[in-house]
């Protein structure tokens, strides 16, 4: 047991530290760049150590996951088997689907497949237990990435880059309750602001006209405009048009991208950054790494 | 080595371990809260003032590696260190079991409080159930690894001196 220290004055010290922490917190939330640089510096110092540990602990991690993640693995296996069966069943209609998609893209003028992207590998969740709906990827500012860029999979929008270090970045997933994106309904052409719900879906919270004619299963894409995310990236499909809303419509969107079984993702480069990096344009998913 | 250097060494080691090895070993997606553990143990062994100052810097380092706004964990950790120090003075008897439970409670409370502050400042969503699960699991995991960390932090915070000095009257 530690000896009491009568000379110590924890209350003034605690108040002083709380004031310092609150000041830092306020400055950081208001966007003080040196604080970001400090945090990035700490992470960059740790980065080589993390890479070595990642490699060295791979066998341990495999054994660890085998012990503690066995049930999850079984569930995932079952889910994948179901998915495979479903895909086999759907293979007959693939040609018809492709034709339908091409026609839809043609009608609305989407050029989703012609975006310049950087391929990134998912490393896992960021260190610590702070927050959910975030993943870490293996590319950073050295690869030409910057904060705010859209992250997509073959199926559509996955999230956006939230923090970019030299060799790693953190992606905030589209399902995160703090994720906001401007969206457009392809058929009704209504635009709104969608927010993640934390449960695999997004909800359009503002912008949709109360009388808008929105169909179930209607495709939803990013609206672009003043948003940092490019326009016309597929987001998902409407699963609840909220037809009975009296004042404001809260349309629910099922995300097109499956966030459960991802390994590689594409970061969509902003148009202004595409040229200096000498990325071929006009090609489908130009893979640079 | 001076006490400050020892504490600094412990903090740097804890950051490196939390950001690397412990991050790889997760149960239910939750990892050990080593820097929070170091904070509360420094409060326990080193007293409230030393505990609070160490916890502040531990919080800043934690903010940096997890990508939280700088100051968020630095706001939460010092009160936890002072609370543990204060409780330690009031405990009549301590056994390994009560100490383990105290670590579990302190870490779970610290983790839960950090999530609450994150929600308050709008940097986290409002998935309360998930945060409660994370806090309890982090408390359990951290309590499991607390014994060896306790020895290291005691060395750093007290300089290897005995924690208590019993004074007795001389003579018969």
Features:
heterodimer; A: 289 residues; 6 helices; globular; B: 172 residues; mainly alpha
SSE topology sketch:
The complex is a heterodimer of chains A (289) and B (172).
Chain A: H1 10-29, H2 33-56, H3 58-68, H4 70-90, H5 94-108, E1 117-124, E2 134-137, E3 150-153, E4 156-164, E5 169-173, E6 180-185, E7 191-196, E8 201-206, E9 219-222, E10 234-240, E11 251-255, E12 264-268, H6 271-274
Antiparallel strand pairs in A: 1-2, 1-12, 2-5, 3-4, 3-12, 4-5, 6-7, 6-9, 7-8, 8-11, 9-10, 10-11
Chain B: H1 3-19, H2 21-24, H3 34-46, H4 48-66, H5 72-90, H6 96-120, H7 128-144, H8 146-158
Can you give a write-up of this model?
The complex is a heterodimer of chains A (289) and B (172). Chain A is built from six helices and twelve strands. With 289 residues, chain A is of the alpha+beta class. In chain A, the strands form two sheets. In chain A, strands 1-2-5-4-3-12 form a six-stranded antiparallel β-barrel. In chain A, strands 6-7-8-11-10-9 form a six-stranded antiparallel barrel. With 172 residues, chain B is mainly alpha-helical. Chain B has a single domain (3-157), classed as Arp2/3 complex 21 kDa subunit ARPC3, CATH 1.10.1760. Chain B is built from eight helices and no strands. The longest helix of chain B is centred in the middle third of the chain and has 25 residues, at 96-120. The model of chain B has no long low-confidence stretch (mean pLDDT 86). Classes of the chains: A alpha+beta (289), B mainly alpha (172). At the A-B interface, helix 1, helix 2 and helix 3 of A face helix 1, helix 2, helix 3, helix 4 and helix 5 of B.
Low-confidence stretches of chain B: none
Distance separating the two termini of chain B? 40 Å
Rounded average pLDDT of chain A: 77
Largest sheet of chain B: none
In the sheet with the most strands of chain A, the strands line up as 1-2-5-4-3-12
Task: Please identify the oligomeric state.
Answer: heterodimer
Helix share bin of chain A: 25-40%
Mind summarizing the main beta sheet of chain A? Answer: 6 strands, antiparallel, barrel
Spatial separation of the terminal alpha carbons of chain A:
56 Å
Number of domains of chain B: 1
